[in-house]
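== Sequence, structure tokens ==
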Amino acid sequence: MQSAKGTVFKYGDNVDTDVIIPARYLNSSDPAELATHCMEDIDKEFIQKVSKGDIIVATKNFGCGSSREHAPIAIKAAGVSCVIAETFARIFYRNAINIGLPIIECPEAAQAIEAGDTVEVNFDTGVITDVTKGTTYQGQAFPEFMQKIIALVETSWQSGDWNGVGSEILYLVSILGALYAVSLLAGFAFNQIMAVVTQGSLKKMREAMFNRMQR
């Protein structure tokens, strides 16, 4: 997983899971079936117009509402390669990663990109390029553990064995997620220690200079 490129479908704030995949269709868990009703209650022409690789762009709080995984599954099964938004609902964010749907937060891109633009996303760097306008934006790069999860799920989707790797994905998410959290905490602790050390060193230097001036 390195990049995505496609035509943009643009939506606004608070696109919730009930319009991404209406509740009346949740009696099915088949990705192909869910895809046929994706975005039906907000954009009835979406499923007729979307092509494999296309990109959804939205503004704030995309994926709010229920915690069901059907919503990101429907989006992925419809052929969408990436979702860009100012912000995502936290549960949707985790569910999207769990089922292998790449998502990226970038307020500037989400505001400026328009429906119908051709957009390319580099997941390694987080750079978003609006090919139509010739503009670039810096989004949040994908950590390596997220790319591993998405790559694993993508393999299962291509083989048609989505259900067969569910427990493996959850296990990988829990382990790699914990390691990522620990790395963030370790980095924070290191920065705090360095700040204390630096402040202590500066204090000693000031005291030494003051003592010399008093002699």
